[in-house]
Automatic annotation (TrEMBL):
The lineage of its organism: Bacteria, Bacillati, Actinomycetota, Actinomycetes, Kitasatosporales. Residues 39-335 form the Beta-lactamase-related domain. Pfam families: Beta-lactamase. It comes from the Bacteria. It comes from Streptomyces sporangiiformans. This is Beta-lactamase family protein. Keywords: Signal. Residues 1-17 form the signal peptide.
Length: 372
């Protein structure tokens, strides 16, 4: 596919928004979405749900070639938001007595976490879910980056299938980041392993268990774990990336890719309405018993992000106005998303940028929850 070399100004489309229900004004959120487009994001699509109803907002375009605007009902790749779904399934299995979060990884995946100082007999399932395992992050491997994140490699390998075992082997070719339980570092390998444990414990793929346990009960009709299918179902917009070390240079259409490169760490597709329904149900105790939800919400402080903590596939953030929100962000080629809700699950926000190199998602979140 050819490059789409447009400046931000040339694809700033007029914003569209559904009227806000009486009692809640989302103008600040709309303005923050518009600002992201001004900063270079092709388009933004999102929905907020609170006691006054559902607000739908968009800005910019979903297709740089045709100028077609984004839709608030767009489906998109949610990247690491997948992690909350995976963690929920593992916690459900714990509640059913089929495994314990204190089980060692080696108990479920003998010999898989081994090499260069990695030792699966010392890492617990809990340490996978809260990123305290010390296991090397396979997406930080230089060769993997050249193969899937830079232009020449991406266009050559975008349809390649990678297996979870291959991704873990990449991680095992490096030394651990630290001894298990002694520090915190975000590692996609942790959730590739979590997906493998789900399969070992249930006999089904992690995607099948998510469908059976979360997608179907909640009626999440736009949500899927696509496996190796490279397409994003309609309605959807195109996704754009720079495929370079820097945010300058040409823009490429990166919509189609084999999501097995992200697997249980980030392959899922959803839309803003479904994500709001999922996180609201989760925080309201509809998916997990009290004990497991409390475990999920037990957080570790993240030095890199002030006023934030990481639980089990779930992040806690204290915003500038004091409001606490729970959720997760997700980035994958051409797609940057956020999904979160308040502690009581009553005020939810999910949105997506269809570009991966600019835009301030934090400003959109602050605008929704903290604007006067």
């Amino acid at each position: 596919m050819g490059a789409v070399a447009l400046t931000a100004a040339s694809f700033t489309a007029s914003a569209t928004a559904a009227p806000a229900p009486t009692g809640q004004d989302h103008r600040a959120t709309q303005e923050a979405m518009d600002a992201a487009v001004e900063a270079g994001v092709p388009g933004v699509a999102g929905q907020a749900k609170d006691k006054y109803g559902t607000w739908k907002g968009t800005s910019g375009v979903g297709n740089l070639r045709t100028g077609k605007p984004r839709s608030a009902h767009d489906r998109y790749r949610v990247g690491s938001i997948t992690k909350t779904f995976v963690s929920t399934v593992l916690l459900q299995l714990e509640a059913e007595g089929r495994l314990s979060l204190d089980d060692k990884v080696d108990q479920w995946l003998p010999g898989v976490v081994r090499g260069n100082g990695h030792d699966g007999t010392r890492v617990t399932l809990r340490q996978l879910l809260n990123h305290t395992s010390g296991i090397f992050n396979y997406t930080a491997d230089e060769e993997f980056g050249r193969t899937f994140f830079l232009k020449d490699g991406f266009f050559k390998h975008r349809y390649d299938t990678t297996t979870p075992e291959q991704l873990v082997r990449i991680a095992m070719s490096h030394k651990p980041d630290f001894a298990p339980g002694t520090s915190w570092n975000y590692s996609n390998t942790n959730f590739i392993l979590a997906g493998m444990v789900i399969e070992k414990a249930t006999g089904h793929s992690y995607g099948e268990e998510i469908r059976r346990r979360i997608i179907q009960p909640l009626g999440l009709h736009a949500t899927s774990a696509p496996g190796t299918n490279p397409k994003v179902p309609q309605p959807s917009s195109r996704a754009y990336g720079k495929l370079a070390e820097t945010a300058t240079g040409p823009t490429y259409d990166v919509t189609e890719l084999n999501p097995s490169l992200a697997g249980a760490a980030g392959e899922m597709i959803s839309d803003s309405g479904d994500l709001n329904r999922f996180y609201s149900a989760l925080l309201r105790g509809k998916l997990l018993p009290k004990a497991q939800l409390a475990e999920m919400k037990t957080t570790i402080k993240i030095d890199e992000i002030p006023d934030a903590g990481y639980g089990l596939g779930l992040m806690e953030r204290k915003l500038s106005c004091g409001t606490v929100v729970w959720g997760h962000g997700g980035g994958i080629h051409g797609s940057s998303s956020e999904a979160l809700t308040t502690d009581d699950g009553r005020h939810s926000l999910s949105f997506n940028f269809n570009g991966d190199w600019s835009g301030d998602s934090e400003a959109v979140i602050e605008a929704e929850y903290c604007a006067k």
